[in-house]
Amino acid sequence: MSEASFADTLSRHGLELPRRAAVTTLQVNVGKRCNQACHHCHVDAGPKRSERIERRTAGRVLELLARSPSVRTLDVTGGAPELSDQFRFLVEGARGLGRRVIDRCNLTVLLEPGQEATAEFLAAHGVAVIASLPCYGPENVERQRGRGVFEKSLRVLQRLNSLGYGLEGSPLALDLVYNPVGPALPPAQPELEARYKEELGRRFGISFHRLLTLTNQPIARFAADLARSGRLAEYLSLLVHHFNPATVPGLMCRHLVSVGYDGRLHDCDFNQMLSLELGAPPRTLWDLESLEGLAGAPVTTGPHCHACTAGAGSSCDGSLT
Asked: Candidates 3.40.50.2000, 3.40.190.80, 3.40.50.1950, 3.20.20.70; correct CATH number of 23-231+250-300?
């Protein structure tokens, strides 16, 4: 695919390149250190990565959050965000400002040394947990994430349930994330959610609120795996040929700003991993006084954007249609 191919796809359907609406979510990648090294990881995170957010940058995030009333949610991701020494500082600061906070958790990190009280910390601060669980059975999970990960994930989910997470009527939100094992689009989100709930509830007594289906991005580690197996071109073609124009109005880049651990600004987490800067200045957290003035700015796009617009669409909040 050429770099202009996403623009060409939009043009063929009579659509223009997306522009920003008001920013409602500030997503912060606090670093690339993770206790896992998953095959599909678009961040290329792992135990040996050392990149991390510093206190000065985390403090600037909170300053801008206080100055940006349209931003209702701080979405904290990584790596494993809980391993950052700024994680609790960001959570406490954002909750003190009355903002919703999301922790994008891989579950098994809560069993790591030093994380014994993290689940209770999340519950005490009303943090919403979005947790990766690529399947309701061990085979697919361990193909993506490693031996023993499924059993550890179940233990953590049961612990979160014991704290009130994921229970019907509970304000402690627990959502799970599915992404395909290989180069395929996710199945329909409502039907798969029902299957997850039936299987996890019946077999393990686990409850959760929503299932979010995500399409694997053809970047970083997943793209390298596809290239090695000779399937990268096939996957890119699949995404292009399943373009769905109904997904474009809901693209997350229209209402989300992604901040790197170094304070640089991007239109989404995927652009951040490709080092694609925000579609219009400013470039860093220190180049603006609030996030309110970004509405109407162009969005930086590329061939990878076909992943968010294929089939039912894909975003950090699941399918788009």
From this structure: 3.20.20.70
